[in-house]
Structure formats: structure tokens, C-alpha cells
TrEMBL record:
GO terms for cellular component: plasma membrane. The gene is livH_12. This is ABC transporter permease. InterPro entries: ABC_transp_permease (IPR001851), BCAA_transport_permease (IPR052157). The lineage of its organism: Bacteria, Pseudomonadati, Pseudomonadota, Betaproteobacteria, Burkholderiales. It is found in: Cell membrane. Pfam families: BPD_transp_2. It is a multi-pass membrane protein.
Amino acid sequence: MSPTLFLMQCLNGLQLGVLLFLMAAGLTLVFGIMNFVNLAHGSLYMMGAFIAATVYNHSGSFALAAVAIVPAMLIIGLIVEFVALKTLYDRDHLDQVLATFGLILFFNELARMIWGPSPYYMEVPEWLSGTIDLFGLPYPAYRFLIIVVGLAVALGCYLLIHRTRIGMLIRAGATHRQMVGALGVNIVLLNSLLFGLGAILAGIAGLMAGPILSVQPGMGEPILILTMVVIVIGGIGSVRGAFLAALIVGVVDTVGRTLLPTLLRSLLERSTADTAGPALASMLIYLVMAAVLAVRPQGLFPVKHG
């Protein structure tokens, strides 16, 4: 692999990583603080992509789609939390898994009813359709925007959690949930705000992924699996862990899919390498997860509960 190709794949891995972080940040807080298993988080990502594509295709303004996605996903998240999930907080995880799996089916059918079963395309904005010079390498401007937005959101999450009163309550809820409730903090409202924040982040991920992926029913399930891997590696409830793990998973997955088949061709017959390479490459992130858990069973940055 040439240095240019390797750098390109690293940038693509960084781009995938920040998308995964947008998904993982909200979900890991819901896991860590609310102790709630939400399999429907990928469906919120899908709805964000569809809503953004609809606004963009009807208005022609990507900026308007970006502005609209925040209140739209906040409303959807709060409605889902109030109508379907609030009564499940004290139930066991199996009930939560079954209920949120039902939400996956509901949202997929809702998307088919509204937008149809065929892919709903969202073009890259014309002003972002070119390339920029990055380390002497022409790189797609829109993919670079995804990296910038993801890093900006990561910084915003850090400031929110570590520099605001709401963030203090979030961190306290992750480590001393019962004590926070005993001190008079409205846990119900905190849960709603957390779920709404997670929905917004998932919607932003859908907005950014729309122009480079096919927007279609069921698109949330594949990225949900990767998001779960990120959360396990980073440590449940840790936004810092989610950020680092997302970058690791993004780079390992992207670079591995290019590098591993090439490496195998130098060691095995070409036909064997072409068959085994993609299969082994798809396993890399799970091998990384297994290695991390073997050394740190709670993840890279586990939240210590008190």
C-alpha cells in the first residue's frame, strides 16, 4: 500500500470514526446513566437521515436541513421516550430489548409508508462537491466537513459534560444515581433531556451520512452494531471512551479492509487471499474488542459507579 493510499484510508477511517461517535455519545449516556438498553437508537439515525434528505430535496438548502434536524429530532426523541420508553425504565433489560426491537420494526415500516421502499437519495451540496488539499492530498470536501463537524460536536459534548451544571448532573447520575435522586434532582426530566440529546446526535449523524450513503429503511441497524462495539470498547457511560473507541474502530475497519487483503496476497495464492481477505477484514473490529476486553473488561474508560 502506497503512503498516499494509506493516508487516504486513515482520513476515511477518521470520518467513519466521528460518525460513530455521534451515534455512540448519546447511546452510551443512555446506557450508563439510565441503565436502559435502546436498540432503536439506529432508527433515530435513520429518521434523521430521511428528515434531512426531505428538507434538503424540497428546499435545496443543506444549511436549512442542518438547522431543521435539531428541533425535529428533539421532538421525536422526547415523544418516543414519553410514549414508549418511560414505563420501561424499571423493567429488566430483556423487556427493554424486546420493546425497542419493536420500535425498530415500527420506524422501518413508518419510513416505508412515508418515503417508500426504494433508496431516497440526498446529493452532496454543490459547494461541497469538490476537493481540498490536505497534507498534499486531494480529499473530498464533504468528507472533511464530516470530520470537522464530528470533532466540533465532540468538543461541545466535552464542554457540556465538564463545564455546565447539566453536565455535572449527568456525571453525578452516571456514578451516584440514587444519591442524585435523593438530593431532589428531577431524574425524570434528566432522563428525558438525555434521551433528547441522544436523538439529536443520532439525527446529526444521519444528516451527515445522508449524502454519502443510501438513505433507506433499515439503514440504522448496520451502524447500530458498530456503535455497540464502540460503547463496549470505550466503556459504558463514558463519552471520552466513546470518542477514542469510535476513532479506533473507524480507522481499524477502514484501513483493515484495504490493507489486509493486500497483505494476504503477498502470503497466499491470489484466489485464496481474495476470498479470505474481506472476511477477515470484517472481523478485525471484533478482534480489537476482544483484545480490549481481555485486558480491560470494563472498557478503556469505565464509569465507576458509587
